Amino acid sequence: MTLVVQKYGGSSVSDAEAIRRVAKRIVDTKRLGHNVVVVVSAMGDTTDDLLDLAGNITDHAPDREMDMLLSAGERISMALLAMAVNELGVPAMSYTGQQAGVRTDNHFGKASIVSMVPERIARSIQDGNVAIVAGFQGVDDHEDVTTLGRGGSDTTAVALAASLHADVCEIYTDVDGLFTADPRIAPNAKRIRTIDYESTLEMAANGAKILHLRAVEFARRYHVPLHVRSSFSEKEGTWISDKPANPALKGIVPQSALNYYPQEDTVEGPIISGIAHDRSQDKITLVGVPDKPGSAAHIFEIIAAAGANIDMIVQNVSTIQKGATDLTVTMPHDDAKATVAALEAAKEEIGFAAVVHTGNVGKLSLVGAGMRTNPGVSAKLFGALSKAGINIDMISTSEIRLSVLVSLDQLDDAVRAVHTAFGLDASETEAVVYGGTGR
Question: Which stretch of DSSP H or E encloses residue 54?
């Protein structure tokens, strides 16, 4: 029998009615002859409510206790969903992350999975049950409960699919798959039918929020086919893989997935897969950095020690003095404050003139495997932005990605202008956001 892993986000199980709707979908999949393992997130705003409760108790909650608290949300939804599936006449059993064999390191709040030993899950599905697993959580070597941080339930689902050798991992959300741009900004965005891991990874890394970067990395590393779709409709979603779907999945996955081959190998395949954007970046510029060996190395050692994750890097001849350079980096907003403080503390030691911190920036990224072999992509991008009156602050490239930094208040206009310029607009509306968040 084929094995299908399904993951449902918080908006998909937000209340009793939603849980019953999800249970019916699970039962329908089971009755088609597939084994089913489900990973579920906390209901609706449960995690935020738990955080608020903790905040009313203390401003200094121990990390261990916060993980114990936050893991409760998924346990509630897994048990209720198991009840709903049983009510429909199909046996189901719920399991915590620990019971499912999710082993992690001990970094509370942002733990990483170090091993998967899903013996109980394998036995459960062999016995004919639907196994329902709490996402977002695991257990460390000291048997302490840990949570996986952002994208944790997606990561749990992909890790389970990899360890159980599932035929597909379906990520259910509140939009009908991946789109060529965020439909809240570009309402005429097209649904992407099929896409390879590499392009999906670039889109996730550069702001596309439907799939978390960690989950895509896991899927690519262990060759787990993904099907991103909505739990609020019966529409086909987006097939993410480097190979076609198992023919036995016909009726579950998109028809295009059964005949799929990578876009870059098709003569008429699209040059651009989609456009991602990111509002969470800050820009930091060190002015007047001594232009000598070792200066850049020292600066990046300080940034690394501050725990910052650098995205874009640009170095130019200094605007204020000879024999010096200006070094600019971008990073997540949450990392910027500590980084600026660390750099200011090392100002005299390094010998630069000033630190300039700018938060009013947005990043647009053009992604597509076809960029490898098609000239003129850069010219079209810059031409579209110029025509829209949008100035470019920084540029960064990879083999299949071209990113630009623009003023935050012009980011939405930039996305729409570039989307149209590359012929990605749909002739009629395809994108519907059912739950309101896109997660």
Answer: helix 46-57
Is the pLDDT assigned to residue 268 strictly greater than 50? no
**Token pair for residue 342?**
């660390």
CA 357 to chain centre: 27
Question: Amino acid identity of 356?
Answer: V
Q: Which helix or strand (DSSP H or E) is residue 366 part of?
A: strand 361-367
Check: CB of residue 276 under 8 Å from CB of residue 341. no
d(CA 437, CA 432): 11
Contacts of 17 (CB under 8 A, 6+ apart): none
pLDDT band of residue 439 (cuts 50, 70, 90) is: very low
pLDDT category, 431, cuts 50, 70, 90? Answer: low
In angstroms, the Cα distances linking 399 to 61, 370, 410, 424 are 44, 10, 26, 20
- Chain-centre distance of CA 275, in angstroms? 14
State which amino acid sits at residue 125: I
Mean pLDDT, residues 266-294 = 84
Whole-number Å distance between alpha carbons of 87 and 24 = 10
Residue 75 tokens read as 């346990």
- As a whole number of Å, the end-to-end CA separation of the chain is 30
DSSP 171-217: EEESSSS-BSS-TTT-TTPPBP-EE-HHHHHHHHHTT--SS-HHHHH
Distance CA(333)–CA(283), nearest Å, equals 9
Distance CA 195, CA 296 (A): 37
pLDDT of residue 254: 86
Q: CA dist 396 to 214, 365, 378, 385, 413, Å?
A: 22, 9, 11, 16, 20
Tell me the pTM.
0.86
Question: Strand pairing of 137-139 and 145-147?
Answer: antiparallel
Q: Residue 266: its pLDDT value, please?
A: 43
